[in-house]
Amino acid sequence: MSESNSEQKIPVKHIDPTDHKKRPAPRRDNKNDKKKGRRQIYVRAAEGVFQTLRSRMNWVMMLSFMLLPWLHIDGRQAVFLDFSNRQFHLFGLTIWPQDLMLLAFVFIIAAFALFFFTTFLGRVWCGYWCPQTVWTFLFIWFEEKLEGPRNKRIRLDELPWSFNKFWRKTAKHGCWLLVSLITALTFVAYFWGSHEAFFGFFTGDLTFWPYFWTFFFMLATYGNAGWMREIVCLHMCPYARFQSVMFDRDTFTVSYDAKRGESRGPRPRKKDPKELGLGDCIDCVLCVQVCPTGIDIRDGLQYECINCGACVDVCDQTMDRMGYEKGLISYTTERQLEGGKTNIMRPKLLGYGVILLIMMSALVATVATRQPLKLDVIRDRNMLSRLNDYGLMENVYTLKVLNKSQVVRSYQLAVDGIDGLEWNGETQVIVEPGEVFSVPVSLAIDPYLLKQPITDLEFVLTDDEGRQVTQESRFIKGR
């Protein structure tokens, strides 16, 4: 090689992507950051297919949360968790303490759905649906609008205090607090009612606990999404710690193709990187700047990655500008990066999917066969049986009729199992929605008609639409 060519050759530093000890330390955003302190992360705005998808899903999540308390069905709040009366109202369905099996099904389904999607798509829940991510990106949006893009925010924090810095910081935190207050009031509205929570808060009609929880969740939202941000994802969320047990070599995660990207380094756009001994990565560090948790995806799979795809979009744009093929950073699998073919239909994923379908089917069947009425029978324990003034053997019961529907119902009461029983008490009652109606009843019979000391019987409850439930009990013959 001639002396002139050797002088023009760009020096290349070869970096082993598998040796983290030899890797340079991540670039810090703030010159004043201390090694022992938390590194301030200034998230750069990113655009692309995945960010558009994430943004739209975030809006769906946030608007659903905000608007659901204002949706009413048959004059009742559609989603209302009434702990004081031990009732959960969900879109026309009232769940009582006796229906906790439904909630158990919901929690089990949520758990297996998390297992299924984590095994298939990694930590995609965190990047697209998690409330912490949704509200953090919303707060970052206010930050960008009021303080400017990433570089301006870094510069603003380094400047001494001035009127410009004061009003921008004040406006930002004011917007954060306003969003946090609306979020907290919406959360409280699920438990105290939408009108009571919002209007009562400003008119002073609420009691101590609604105010307490409003301010508590307001400060929690403000702190989590405004100040702690990635700390919640990295150190407070348990999902970040146990997600790895669900990963395998066929799990789709945001990954960097080291074989294609290394060795990395800057180069002229029109130069062939192979001639320079370089890979496709130009070491622009944009993938680090757009990451909400501040990691370098080129260091390999890390539990801090929330699979939001911001680095994928910004890297694809860079590859497009350089005239390279997209996909240097992409949603891919470890097996595919090694040159193999991803195995989607694998036993673990199929197992999670089958169990998920079974549990969802069980939930649908339970809801479909659920009766909106319930009958409980309580015997008089002070006196199991007695002879009344007419010489008849008498047992006393208290029937608890529960109207689990959301309309007024008329119910018919009867007893079956013993011929010749005399019913003393109401046989037809009208029960308000959600009410537990007590009906004292005594049953009497000629003791000579009883062949056994204890005889089984059934109380029958029938509503005005023909639905029927039964409850077993016993008739005791006294001595």
From TrEMBL:
Q: Where is this region: Disordered?
A: 1-38
| Source organism superkingdom | Bacteria
Residues in 4Fe-4S ferredoxin-type domain copies: 272-300
Quote the protein name from its UniProt record. Answer: Cytochrome c oxidase accessory protein CcoG
Residues annotated as coiled-coil are none
Q: What species was this sequence derived from?
A: Neiella holothuriorum
Keywords on record: 4Fe-4S, Electron transport, Iron, Iron-sulfur, Membrane, Metal-binding, Transmembrane, Transmembrane helix, Transport
Please list every transmembrane segment annotated in the UniProt record, as residue ranges. 59-80, 100-121, 174-192, 198-220, 349-368
